Amino acid sequence: MILDQIVQASTIRAEALTPGHMSRFADSRSMAHIGRERFSLLKAITGAVDRNSIIAEMKPASPSKGHLRAITDPVAVSQDLIGGGCCALSVITEPAFFHGSITTIPAIRDETKVPILRKDFIVDKKQIEETRNAGADAVLLITAVLGDQLGEFVDAARKAGLEPLVEVHDRQEVRTALDTGADLIGINNRNLKNLKTDLSTTIRLAPMIKRADRTVIAESGVTWPCDIRTLRSYANGYLIGSSIMAAENPRRRLEGFVYA
Ligand SMILES: O=P(O)(O)OC[C@@H](O)[C@@H](O)c1c[nH]c2ccccc12
């Protein structure tokens, strides 16, 4: 199963993280911590009034789609997406299966005046510290990966000054996620076991989350503006990667979602 392989590779990388590695992105101007202003993902999602809240994802490749877009100039890509009206950026940092890199975050952070979400398979608390030092504002925590450790990781993220976005895919995972007190819950429409997407996952799970007064992000499989219209009464925001990255003009594709 692909998820097991990705988690295994992430675990090996995380075990190799040393304190020197974790602080290698620290801002030289302020020694231990980066000087970048902080941006709230929750506020960015719930604060948009005249547009849809889109988290645009910088993703070079994926196990399901293969090559999407070479990101040779991350600053240019991120500025293009911000110009297109996204409320936040998601940066995939997983190297082996998604061709991402943690270095993309420090490369763009000083120019980026929207929240930055680090998207990876977090399995070790050392990665939380690494995420903060890289300059991210929020971190993805996957319920299917962390299981009963989820609560601990939510607390660790908050302690590090990061907003956790907790990812779920079924009812049991929603219950686990709600128990941690997480404010932001991402419903992954993609089944990580067979990589198939089904937008009705959001329609099925969102009411449980809204009833608990939490914010819902619809993740994966949003391909066209009509998908936003389908999910509008269920989700507060949308996380979109492949459709934007594979478009000939990513900014224009993003604008279609923002103003759908
Ligand atoms: O490219 P899409 O179908 O728009 O999906 C984006 C995002 O939801 C997807 O990349 C994703 C959701 N959860 C993840 C966990 C790890 C890596 C990637 C992901």
Automatic annotation (TrEMBL):
Catalyzed chemical reaction(s): 1-(2-carboxyphenylamino)-1-deoxy-D-ribulose 5-phosphate + H(+) = (1S,2R)-1-C-(indol-3-yl)glycerol 3-phosphate + CO2 + H2O
Keywords: Amino-acid biosynthesis, Aromatic amino acid biosynthesis, Decarboxylase, Lyase, Tryptophan biosynthesis
The EC number(s) this enzyme carries: 4.1.1.48
Keyword flag Lyase: yes
Enzyme class, first EC level, given as a word: lyase
GO molecular function: indole-3-glycerol-phosphate synthase activity; phosphoribosylanthranilate isomerase activity
UniProt pathway: Amino-acid biosynthesis; L-tryptophan biosynthesis; L-tryptophan from chorismate: step 4/5
GO biological process terms, semicolon-separated: L-tryptophan biosynthetic process
Record-linked Pfam families: IGPS
The Indole-3-glycerol phosphate synthase domain, residue ranges: 25-254
InterPro entries the record matches: Aldolase_TIM, Indole-3-glycerol_P_synth, Indole-3-glycerol_P_synth_dom, Indole-3-GlycerolPSynthase_CS, RibuloseP-bd_barrel
PANTHER family listed in its UniProt record: INDOLE-3-GLYCEROL-PHOSPHATE SYNTHASE, TRYPTOPHAN BIOSYNTHESIS PROTEIN
Protein family: Belongs to the TrpC family.
Name by which UniProt lists this protein: Indole-3-glycerol phosphate synthase
Taxonomic source organism: Methanospirillum lacunae
Gene expressing this chain: trpC
